[in-house]
Amino acid sequence: MTKKWISRVDVIVLAVLLLVGLGLWILPRVLPQSDTLIAEVTVGGETVLELDLQTATDRETYPLENGVVLVAEHHTVAVLSADCPDKVCVNTGALSRAGEVAACVPTGTVVTVKGESRVSLDGITY
To answer: What's the order of all strands across the beta sheet hosting 101-104?
Structure first.
């Protein structure tokens, strides 16, 4: 008598789990996330710049007084360069969704994307 490693029920359970996982991964990307996205830039706790990401289509750079240079393009904002040694803020990449944050601790600069969310679906919602 031979023992089966995978039964028909196992295959069905795996297929259902795969479809549920795929749906949870695709759903937040297809649903509209927000009406307005604003990138708020603070230095030392003081707001120094607010960028409307809905209108940021062409590449524009924003040099700050502390040596941090921001770039806004294609409805995103990113830290282009900074005078800090480790460049964590630069390696964060482009921010385009409400709640995303890039911080440069040595210069005290924080870039936060804020938005009025129509759909508040994330991994913690469940």
So the answer is: 46-52, 34-43, 109-117, 101-104
Q: State pLDDT tens for residues 34-65.
A: 568 899 999 999 999 999 988 888 899 999 99
Phi first, then psi, for residue 9 (nearest 5°) are -65, -40
DSSP 23-69: HHHHHHHHS--EEEEEEEEEETTEEEEEEETTS--S-EEEE-TTS-E
What backbone torsions phi and psi does residue 109 show, to the nearest 5 degrees? Answer: -100, 130
Tally of CB atoms within 10 A around 92? 16
Name the nearest CA neighbour of 72 among 105, 22, 48, 37.
37
Half-sphere exposure of 14 (CA within 13 A, CB side): 6
* Separation between Cα atoms, residue 109 and residue 42, nearest integer Å: 6
β-pair type (60-63, 101-104): unpaired
